[in-house]
Amino acid sequence: MLKKLANSVFSFDVxxxxxxxxxxxxxxxxxxxxxxxxxxxAFEALWAGARKDGDAPDLQPYLKxxxxxVVSLAGILREQAPGGKPLLKLVSLPTDPSDPHKSDxxxxxxxxxKSVGNRxxxxxxxxxxxxxxxxxxxxxxxxxxxxFGFSERPNKPWEGVDYFDARNSDYNLDLADAMGQFxxxxxxxxxxxxxxxxGKLEVSGDSVAQMWLEGKLPEIVEYNExxxxxxxxxxxxxxxxxxxLSTDQYLEEQKMVRELLxxxxxxxxxxxxxxxxxxxxxxxxxxxx
Length: 289
What we know:
Elements: E1 8-18, H1 20-27, H2 37-50, E2 68-79, E3 87-93, H3 105-119, E4 122-125, H4 128-142, E5 172-174, H5 175-179, H6 188-193, H7 208-213, H8 217-241, H9 247-266, H10 272-286
Parallel strand pairs: 1-4, 4-5
Antiparallel strand pairs: 1-2, 2-3
């Protein structure tokens, strides 16, 4: 279970799509930087290249993350000054999905790595050690970006922050590893909803590629924000189990999350009302808090 609660924690989730430029380079498809028919053909070329003999012709297999493009990153930043009360903040990239520059993959990656490199928070995700962190690293390298402090590593795990050693470092926390191994590992949706926490709401990761092709990046960002809140609430529950949060502190953490949700709703994020409504529904069924 979890061993350390740092003064800065970032519970995050990343969304990505097949990268049209990867298809252009590897399969000679037409250039396609935005949604449309050429992008759809590029997606299909990448999926076709990953299908195995006997697979259905319309199967959309999981692609190696290096072949994908990051389109959204969202997280809950929890910061606590020594002796002070924790403060929560929603971080959502791109900050403006309608702005092509802010939606550019390089901008998203640079913003994330600069902030993490400066603050050095514990990174908390679900299957993040196997997927989210690797795609951020791979795509930063593909885009020719420096690590901005995110890539720094100590000589030994106990001598500093290390985001590249999930097995030994306390700063790359994968909740999926805490919940189970191999066939017994639940999905984020299963682990969350059975705990009274909203899981997937209407959208799943398999839907993101089609949503992007339809020009629905704002909806992808909204979905990503849902997963960020889900991940943070599950982290708090695991931290409580691990003895890092007392029962009173765990209840207070949930109260702070609810206050953050209400604050964001009042600041023109009405989609988060669905999260609150589902949270109340699940608490009513499970009787858990």
